[in-house]
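Re: the pair you flagged

First of the two:
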Amino acid sequence: MAGRAAFAVGSLLCASVFAQSSASSSADATTSYRAIFTVPASAQNGLNVLPNINDPEAVSAQDVCPGYTASNVVRTPYGLTADLRLAGSACNVYGTDVDALNLTVEYQASDRLHVEITPTYVDSSNSSWYILPEALVQKPTIDADANSTLESDLNFVWSNTPTFSFSVIRQSTGDVLFSTTGTKLVYENQFIEFGSSLPENYNLYGMGETIHGLRMGNNFTRTFYAADVGDPIDYNIYGDHSFYLDTRYYEVDETTGNLTYAANATNVTAQYVSYSHGVYMRNAHGQEVLMQPSNITWRTLGGSIDLYFYAGPSQDKVTKAYQNSAIGLPAMQQYFTFGFHQCRWGYSNWSELQDVVDNFSKFGIPLENIW
């Protein structure tokens, strides 16, 4: 902000000097410099985009919407495709229901499963509602060395009872990692909702960018709508990653080796083993994720359902797989960024900024960057 203010003031100063030079050609012309621009105090106040309305009379989409039914299921070399059609009359509760959807399931790698649901009919008039360009946000694809017989620890299971739902299961343990069973898929032009059950006292991490405890908690809502508002606790900050890591702990039976989920893994004498998996929702529209005691609900204002499941089973394997397939590795830093920086929010004007630079020089303090 200080850099933009300094640039603006510099432009004004140049304009003022030009006006003075032009005016000096006329004997009776007078010139005065413009006042130095000062950043207004209101610039400190960012927009609060967290949900602040709790309407107990709001219609629950789960109560009034019909869900979908899957048909025309076709096996593909890497998964399956299917058609989804409304299972009843449209509810149109927060928009217009999309009658026909396409389901695509891909086993993209041995540790990654892709589940995508998009409208069947998309054209140039509404493509921006649903299609997120790969040029803007990278889209994970089937690994180059993958083949149709790859073995995956993730298994996709679907059902039409009573309406379309699906589950993702870790085959090595039989653990259900994600399941929409018991909920309805809601897909409208301005509102999408789907949910998954979660085990008791679950451990979710991620859903950045926000200042919050590392563990998200079981009664917490994250709103994805980036805002340039500094560093407030539990408020939206500069960006977001619609990704979470789910870590689960199990007690090991010493005799059989069987695993039993531990809702409270706090017994110091017990033997625990942990399994982690990741879930990434590739969607750039405004979203909110409701983490409730026994389930998680995703809501978005548009886009598509573009889910990626990472098997892990360790945290570092999930993170590396997410980086390599979805967001890329951190960029190599430019050499100058390793120098001495001075940064502060709230410089009033360019002359104050110059004073800071001059004082660094005066006292012999190294300084390569100021911003």
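Second of the two:
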Amino acid sequence: MGKRRKWLAIIAALSTLSLVAAACGGDDDGGGATGETSEEVSGSLNISGSSTVEPITSLVGEKFLTQNPGVNFAVDGPGTSDGFELFCNGETDISDASRPIEQEELDACAANGITPIELEIGLDALSVIGNPANPVTCMTFGDLYALFGPESDGFANWSDADSLATELGGNDSFPDFALTIVAPGEESGTYGSFIDIVGTDDTAEERGVEEDLAGGLRTAGYTISADDNVIVENAAGSEGGLGFVGFAFAEQAGDTVKEFEIDGGDGCVAPSAEAVIDGTYPLGRSLYIYVSDVALEENPAVGPFVDFYLTDAGLASVEEVQYISLPDDRIAETQSAWESASAA
């Protein structure tokens, strides 16, 4: 992941050719649910943003290239915030995002004459991960604050957080493991989502604490990585490892990491597709792509690519890389939003 760029040639897409051919067989209406196009598209597509969404968009791109090998396709995942900066500067056509665009980013886009088209394309269970040897099974938001928040800067061991976690209604028996945190940084939508969902510490003022999660996470003893695989490797390889990643990265790690259950106030819930869809998993979130209206008008490859992205074959990529598909009614809302925007 990180800052690397993926230039996807035809040969990179051959592994998915049979799947797309099956999905497209027997339908030559130029679009619709199967995603078959009536004319081959050429040109260039430049996509950047979330490392969480990157695997979805990469797979959609591979499938799209089997029908449109003349397209020069580039996608990378430096982080949602970095991606929006490029997007609003007019340097990319589409921005992958693991959080909604913020007002200051909308203002930056507007200053350059760009109106983003927001399209929800999937769901994610933001997953807090650790080592399988860790005896902790469930964490409250108070626990997460005690381990990741600004008051934990001096905590070298998990057990150092016991007192603060207890004060916040959380755990009082963390293990005596060295606390080794590797997690996303501020450029990441996953970082922003974690702060937004876990929220603020309502007791901070009465305890005489000036900062809560709204001011950012701890700085000491927190190693930033834009590479989700590095975050997984820390959790898998260190007894006291701790971090958070998108659901797909945790699932792909299998038994090498522990996915902690989270208690957002209604009991402990493990990350799963079902729990995100029914709203019981507290760290569920939406995944997006944002399309530049300027690029849509000026780049003839943008419209056909997004058309394909929102077909059955394109959206199947969400589950194929182990994220969570939108319910049918929300898929319909996304498709309707795109039809309206692309027809404008």
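The domain at 5-123+286-343 is CATH 3.40.190.10 (D-Maltodextrin-Binding Protein; domain 2).

-B.
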